[in-house]
Specification:
Layout (H helix, E strand, L loop, with lengths): L4 E6 L4 H4 L16 H18 L4 E5 L3 H14 L3 E6 L14 H14 L12 H19 L7 E6 L1 H12 L3 H6 L8 E6 L5 E3 L10
Parallel strand pairs: 1-4, 2-3, 2-4
Antiparallel strand pairs: 1-5, 5-6
Helix pairs in contact: 2-3, 5-6
Length: 213
């Protein structure tokens, strides 16, 4: 049977979220949480525990430092629920390729916004479509795991803003336009997919859109 819920969460506030100058000298995967990000993760853990109660949990997380740190702190409230956790590089954030000056990153983001968040490929990096493809293969693993007789009652995916949106796009078969109208979830925003009687999932969390934030 499929888990009762698939819970997704974006990492807490990172150094790159508050100061773009970090991107000149620190690889994206190595950025740490800020003190505020740690507090967000601790609070998110309490909220997730409130959702789970005594139910069991399988955790999948991106290998980036900020997602691992987010898991480290939210785990303080849900450690008794967790039966297994695994890192999966396929749910990492969109690859930006190499270190860049913030001004150059800003130019790339402007070009991406003008062209298409989904189709635009970052120089030496990935497009949203590339991330969509690897998220699709991650889902194949997810479904295989769901078929295991001892699979826990819930799944938690600790990931990144764009990757989270693309996961939902792939799962719910949203169009490119529907995906691009969504905004990234806030840092440590909890997104819940609840299983219905027919074994399908309903997105019960609200995501902000570009037309209505």
């Amino acid at each position: 049977m499929r888990p009762n819920r698939i819970i997704l969460i974006r990492h807490g506030e990172s150094q790159g979220n508050v100061d773009k100058n970090h991107y000149k000298s620190v690889p994206d995967y190595a950025l740490n949480l800020t003190a505020g990000g740690i507090e967000q993760a601790l609070q998110a853990g309490k909220e997730i525990q409130g959702i789970l109660g005594n139910e069991s949990l399988y955790v999948y997380l991106s290998p980036f430092i900020r997602t691992r740190q987010t898991y480290q702190y939210l785990k303080e409230s849900i450690e008794k629920n967790i039966t297994k956790s695994t890192e999966d590089p396929r749910i990492r954030e969109q690859d930006w390729g190499h270190l860049r000056h913030p001004d150059e990153n800003e130019e790339i983001m402007q070009a991406r916004d003008s062209f298409s968040t989904f189709y635009y490929r970052i120089p030496d990096g990935e497009s949203g479509a590339d991330v969509y493809d690897r998220v699709s293969t991650f889902m194949e693993t997810l479904f295989r795991d769901f078929n295991k007789v001892d699979y826990p009652q819930n799944a938690l995916i600790v990931t990144h803003g764009l990757t989270l949106r693309l996961f939902l796009m792939r799962w719910f078969h949203w169009t490119v336009e529907e995906f691009e109208n969504l905004r990234n979830p806030r840092n440590c925003q909890i997104v819940v997919m609840q299983k219905k009687a027919d074994e399908r999932y309903e997105l019960i969390s609200k995501l902000a859109t570009r037309n209505n934030s």
